[in-house]
Amino acid sequence: MTVQDQTPNGFFESDINMMANRMQARHAMLVDGFRHVIADSTVLLLGAEDGRWCYSFAAAGALQVVGVEPCSALVERFSRLPDIGLRERIDLRSADVLAEIIAEAHAGRRYDVVVLFDVLEGAAPLHDWFHAIMALHPRLVIGDGLFATTHDPIMALEKPRRPIHGATATRLIPSHGAIAMASRDAGFDLD
Question: What is the pTM of this model?
Answer without folding.
Answer: 0.85
